[in-house]
Amino acid sequence: MLKILVLGSAAGGGYPQWNCNCETCRGHREKSINSTARTQSSIAVSSDGIHWLLVNASPDIGQQIRHCPQLQPGRQLRDTGITAVMLMDSQIDHTTGLLSLREHHQRLPVYCSKMVHNDLTTGFPVFNMLEHYCGVDWNEIDCSKPAFTVPGIADLEFSPLLIDSKAPPYSPHRHDPHPGDNIAITIRDLKTGRSVFYSPGLGGLQDSTRSAMQQADCLLVDGTTWTNDEMQTRGVGSKLASEMGHLAQSGSGGMIEELSACNARKILIHINNTNPILDNESAQRKQLHELGIEVAEDSMEITL
Ligand code: MLT
Ligand code: MN
Ligand code: ZN
User: Fold this and answer.
1) Is the N or C terminus of the chain more exposed, i.e. has fewer CB atoms within 10 Å?
2) Is the CB of 91 under 6 A from ligand 1?
3) Whole-structure pTM value
């Protein structure tokens, strides 16, 4: 069975964000809204519940592991349930957790695209830095290949997909997009045939994206913002969601409309702290509920 653990369901900054007093962050602190705090974006997947693939390494990984006994077994003096790490992009909220894995007792197997490897050896040279600690055993994700497996992660097959999104602000090619800056992944249990499509940073859908989404049994997709200009309307920034590589949920051509074509279980993840769906009683949240779209929470367990 394919097991998915949601380790962190918020976008960069988490929820509430440390320095933010927007409506939702303040509402959470003052308890004037009913909402749940969330750490930054990451999931773990496994078929046996013992060997886990960490997909994205969040800066909150220490806290996330402490909340997941599955990831912290006690079979030997130094032990972990994390067998390997896979990265969807090189964004800070998806990669800085690698630094916290530096005590790993062997070279850390990391799966990512060539473009992500470029960023993580130049603009944010975490791979180079880790050579002075556990070291990284890099495995290239080549999106021209249909599927691959990860040693130690039994029965799961991974199909990568190039998607539209954005390289991080620190990347040497932030404004010069390349295939592989961001990928999505379909994870399939070879025994049951059941699959999940995971894409926490999805700027827009191509036909290939739609087709992958229509074939999956569960979708864990970009839930960053409700509206494209949300950072502006909440008064916290000037960037549009689309400029940051995220497709907003509402409106024509938005994520909700895209999801209406899919029969899978639908779950939004990577929720920005400005998003009104974080308020469990908001009109926007009710709308999602009526459409059968769920909102991921930390420690959520999905079994397919
Ligand atoms: C993003 O997905 O755009 C990031 O969360 C931004 C960040 O990490 O600062
Ligand atoms: Mn992010
Ligand atoms: Zn906020």
Assistant:
1) N
2) yes
3) 0.97
What confidence tens digit (pLDDT) does each residue in 53-101 have? 999 999 999 999 999 999 999 999 999 999 999 999 999 999 999 999 9
What's the 50 CA to ligand 1 centre distance in angstroms? Answer: 30
Is ligand 1 within 6 A of the CB of residue 244?
yes
Q: Atom 8 of ligand 1 has which residue's CA nearest to it?
A: 12
Residue 8: predicted pLDDT? 98
SS3 60: coil
Q: Name 199's Cβ contacts closer than 8 Å, sequence gap at least 6.
A: 88, 163, 184, 185, 209, 220, 221, 222
- Name all domains of the chain by residue range, CATH numbers in brackets: 3-303 (3.60.15.10)
